[in-house]
Structures are given as C-alpha cells and as structure tokens.
Design goal:
There is one protein chain. By secondary structure, this protein is of the alpha+beta class. The protein folds into two domains: about 5-105, Copper Amine Oxidase, Chain A, domain 1, CATH 3.30.457.10; about 115-315, 3-Layer(aba) Sandwich (Aminopeptidase), CATH 3.40.630.40. The chain is about 30% helix and about 25% strand. It is built from eight helices and 17 strands. It has helices spanning about 35-40, 95-105, 135-155, 175-180, 235-250, 265, 285-290, 295-315; strands at about 25, 30, 45-50, 50-55, 60-65, 70, 75-80, 85, 90-95, 115-120, 130, 135, 160, 185-190, 200-205, 255-260, 275-280. The strands form four sheets. It has a six-stranded mixed sheet with strand order 13-10-14-17-15-16, with helices on both faces. A five-stranded antiparallel sheet has the order 3-4-5-6-7. α2 packs across α5, α3 (about 135-155) crosses α8 (about 295-315) and α5 crosses α8 (about 295-315). Residues about 1-15 have low confidence and may be disordered.
C-alpha cells in the first residue's frame, strides 16, 4: 500500500519510539497522536470534542474517545486498550502504533515465498460448531474451504487442508498440520452464532500481541507471554485487515472489525494466520446468505483476492 505512511518504519520500532513523546497513564504507555501524525507525514485534526482524525494521501484514521476501536481507511480495527482524548490531545496505545497501525499502512517487504496455503474448515465430526435446525457450521465451513481452495489453485497457490471430510481434528493439531505441510499462510474458516437473532456482520481475528488483553477478554490476559503465533504479529494484522476489508467492501458485509484472540489455532501458528467469522448462522437473513452456494462463491473469491493483496503488500 503506497501511502504517506511508507516512511513509518522508524516510528515506535526501537530507539525512534522516543520521537512519539510517549506518556504513561492508566498503567499503559501511550503515544500522542499529534506527534505520531507529524512523524508519519499525516495531518491531525479534531472533528468533534470526542473525535479526531489523522489523514494523508491514501490514509484516514478515525479516533474515538474511550473506544478500543479505530477506523483505518473505513475498516474498524480493535486496539489493545482505549484511545484517550484529554486536554486537547489524543493518545493512542504505544504498542498499537507498532503492532496494529503501522503494519496495516506500511509492511516490511521480503523475498520470502508465499506459495502454500493451509485452509482450516472449522469444527468436524462430533464438533458441529454452530447449529441452525439440521444445519451445522461444520458443513458450511467445509464447503467454503473447498470453494476457496479451488480458486486458490487456479490463482497458482498450492493448497492443503486440516480436514477434507466430516472428521474431528483437535484444535492443537490444526496449526501443526499446516506446519507439517510447510504452509506459508493459515486460514481458519468459521461462521458465527449468538444467543440473539439480531447479531450480524463479519469479523476477522488474528493473534493477540504479548502482554495485552484479547478483544473479548474483558481485560484479562494482559499478562500473557509471547506464543509462537506472536512471531508473525505484523503479518497477522495485515492479513486479517485485508480479509475484513474485502468482505466489507466487496460483499457489503457489516463491519464488526479486525479483532484479537488467543485461539489455539492462532496461538500456535508459525506462519501468518487469521480466523474468519464470515456471518451469523443465528441471524435468519445472514443464514440464507451463508447457505447460498452463489453467495458462498462470492465470499470465496473475496478471500482469495484478499490473500493476493496480502502477498502483493509483503513481497519484494
């Protein structure tokens, strides 16, 4: 992604973090948004007493007071802690500059190949996943994996799977299968469910950075150590972002944001990894979309195009 943020590599990565004038409060380190904007070649502006924006060529970031969500180029992204607006200054968690914002706007490129992709259809066997009458999540994740795999093959990728039939696969075995097949990317495919039928939308999860709380953890897990999945923090967030972006832009899915979790399949993945929750089986309208082979094909194409965008962003 060629933007004003292509010069961001010096910010919050090592000794240059001091240029962001870090401050500590609420037990966390924060960066002044205005200092970050200057270092990144962006403009900082207040749009209301509780909203601020950072903008530049190809970059738009919306900050909302006391919210863990920021909007990066029209996609919601969850942070490790809330943004704070006080004394006419905006503060962003310092860790999220280097672990969330920068990797989305400006990835470090490499010559490392991205050829083999492991698809992980969620659930299987006695583990049905979400249920809607006689329909089980495990059926539709497998159908989606087959559609995605077929399109990835046509796009020139080698594809492997954690399962190709209705059989159980332990959560801890899924990233190991990807590793055995020397996969360069891991995608876990799921559909969502809720106790109320009104919940809807798409969300994508990637690994929670060490020492921070996962999106839905209610503050717990902030003392968690690093796991194998954290070796790919910068790649993980970009992959999740690209997937969420195309599901929202291409398919019109309601944006529930890029989120963080320490799911076993993400925690133990040694390659860039993301978990997709493409829609709610518990919502009658979304359920019809999930069960439609035509709409599933469109979802599969969006996932494949997101993988191609990810590859383009990280490759020399």
């Amino acid at each position: 992604m060629a933007t004003a943020a292509t010069a961001l590599g010096i910010n919050a990565r090592g000794q240059e973090a001091s240029r962001l004038q870090p401050v500590s409060f609420m037990g966390r380190n924060y960066a002044r948004a205005s200092a970050y904007a200057r270092s990144a070649g962006l403009s900082f502006k207040w749009t209301s007493p509780e909203l601020a924006t950072l903008t530049g060529p190809g970059v738009s970031i919306l900050l909302d007071h006391d919210s863990r969500k920021i909007r990066i180029n029209n996609i919601w992204v969850w942070l490790s802690a809330p943004v704070w607006l006080r004394d006419r200054e905006a503060f962003i968690p310092l860790l999220d500059i280097s672990k969330t914002v920068e990797p989305i706007l400006s990835q470090r490129r490499s010559r490392q190949a991205l050829r083999t992709i492991c698809l992980d259809p969620g659930h299987g066997g006695e583990d049905t996943g979400k249920r809607d009458g006689n329909r089980n999540e495990k059926q539709y994740t497998l159908l989606l994996a087959r559609d995605v795999g077929r399109l990835l093959g046509r796009a020139g990728f080698r594809v492997t799977y954690t399962r190709t039939s209705d059989r159980p696969v332990e959560l801890s075995d899924r990233p190991l299968i990807a590793q055995r097949h020397k996969a360069d990317l891991f995608l876990s495919l799921h559909y969502n469910g809720a106790d109320v039928s009104s919940a809807f939308g798409a969300e994508v999860y990637c690994m929670t950075p060490a020492g921070t709380s996962s999106t839905n953890a209610g503050g717990e897990g902030a003392d968690s150590p690093a796991y194998p999945g954290n070796r790919m923090d910068e790649r993980n967030i970009l992959l999740a972002y690209e997937l969420q972006k195309l599901m929202v832009a291409r398919l019109g899915r309601t944006d529930r944001g890029v989120r963080r979790a320490r799911f076993a399949v993400l925690r133990d993945a040694t390659m860039p990894a993301a978990l997709i929750e493409a829609g709610f089986m518990s919502n009658p309208q979304e359920a019809r979309w999930i069960y439609s082979s035509k709409d599933r094909a469109l979802l599969a194409q969006a996932i494949v195009d997101a993988v191609r965008n990810f590859k383009k962003a990280i490759s020399l």
